[in-house]
Write a structure and sequence with these properties.
Elements lengths: L1 E4 L1 E11 L8 E2 L1 H21 L8 H25 L6 H18 L1 H14 L10 H25 L5 E5 L2 E9 L2 H20 L1 H16 L17 H7 L3 H26 L10 H24 L12 H9 L5 H7 L16
């Protein structure tokens, strides 16, 4: 349904292809509708594990707006398919796909910049300290970003279908765009994470085991320092602990390595996806984890572990304690374990 044209950012979406009878070409509208419905289903899955803090950050609110835009895009394609007897699908589908891909290709860069500025100004990076004024600012920025993208694409997007000939067959196509920013961001993050983990490869397995012990240690041992579990003295544990940026990179990689590997495989195979069909919320969640990890790296030495992050994917506090050679308290672990609303009374210890 797609043919690559000139660069990885410009593609041709097939609207009509020759059928069995040349007088009755095959309409591809239903296939685009199925692709977009699959995208909405996958984005719904992403929202399900990001639901606790998604409205507490600018990136999260932008993700919600993109999800709404995906649903509206599905409704538009559904309308074009239902009324194809009265409206020419070549014109309507080219208008929908061209504008949709242009908007989705344009938004990632300003969203990344705005998200970075948001976390740079966030007080202590703790979502529990967010205010109503900040929420109003988020909504205003989201509206301005969408208004800018829609106005730009409305004036500069070519929505006219074109005829091309392939293997002596006439095909009706539409020019669509892929997101170069998403591709480059995913590739650069994959390379950076791979190089960091490769440099510390010999110690990575041991650090992962220690992180698992910190995350799933019995509650009776959580108030004691980590080195009392048989790993040696405090100085030895401190020396074997990874630097903070390496520890946070490890925590990020353990959660996002499948997505990063998928991006690398697609890049090596030359598999390109138009911006309207990509699972943009998955990339937004990954970018959110990257920005939160970077912000926590800069502030972690001063603030220490936090109560609640604007990220539901990575257990940042666990890897902060891994780098410091300490153990989180019971209260801190209760807020990190999958963000379950479980409240337990504090454990009291008696001297024997």
């Amino acid at each position: 349904m797609l043919t690559q044209h000139e660069t990885s950012a410009i593609m041709m979406a097939v609207i009509w292809s020759p059928g069995v009878n040349e007088n009755f070409p095959h309409d591809e509208t239903l296939q685009y509708l199925l692709i977009l419905c699959s995208k909405v289903a996958l984005n719904t899955l992403v929202l399900s594990f990001w639901r606790h803090s998604i409205l507490k950050s600018l990136l999260g609110l932008c993700s919600v707006s993109m999800y709404v835009a995906d649903v509206l895009l599905v409704c538009a394609v559904t309308g074009a398919w239902l009324f194809k007897e009265h409206l020419p699908t070549s014109t309507s589908m080219c208008f929908i796909l061209a504008h949709g891909s242009a908007v989705y290709a344009l938004l990632p860069l300003p969203i990344l910049i705005a998200g970075a500025l948001d976390y740079a100004s966030y007080p202590h990076l703790d979502v529990s300290s967010s205010s109503r004024r900040r929420a109003v600012c988020y909504c205003t920025v989201v509206v301005l970003l969408w208004a800018f993208a829609c106005c730009y694409t409305y004036n500069y997007t070519d929505t006219q279908p074109m005829e091309i000939y392939k293997d002596n067959a006439r095909i009706l196509v539409c020019r669509v765009q892929g997101s170069t920013v998403v591709f480059q961001f995913s590739m650069q993050i994959s390379i950076a994470v791979g190089l960091i983990l490769l440099f510390y490869f010999k110690k990575t397995i041991g650090w992962i085991r220690r992180a698992n012990k910190l995350a799933f240690a019995p509650e009776k041992d959580q108030n004691f320092p980590y080195n009392q579990e048989g790993e040696g003295g405090n100085s030895e544990s401190q020396e074997s602990s990874p630097p903070l940026f390496v520890s946070l990179t490890l925590g990020f990689a353990l959660n996002w390595i499948p997505y990063l590997l998928m991006c690398l495989v697609c890049a090596f195979l030359g598999f390109v996806v138009p911006a309207y069909a990509s699972v943009n919320l998955l990339w937004m969640a990954c970018a959110n984890s990257v920005l939160v990890g970077i912000a926590f790296w800069f502030r972690g030495a001063r603030t220490g572990p936090l109560r609640k992050f604007p990220d539901d994917t990575c257990l940042w506090n666990i890897y902060w304690h891994l780098s410091k050679g300490t153990t989180p308290t019971v209260d801190a672990k209760l807020t990190m374990r999958l963000h379950k609303m479980v409240h337990k009374p504090a454990v009291t210890f008696q001297e024997v």
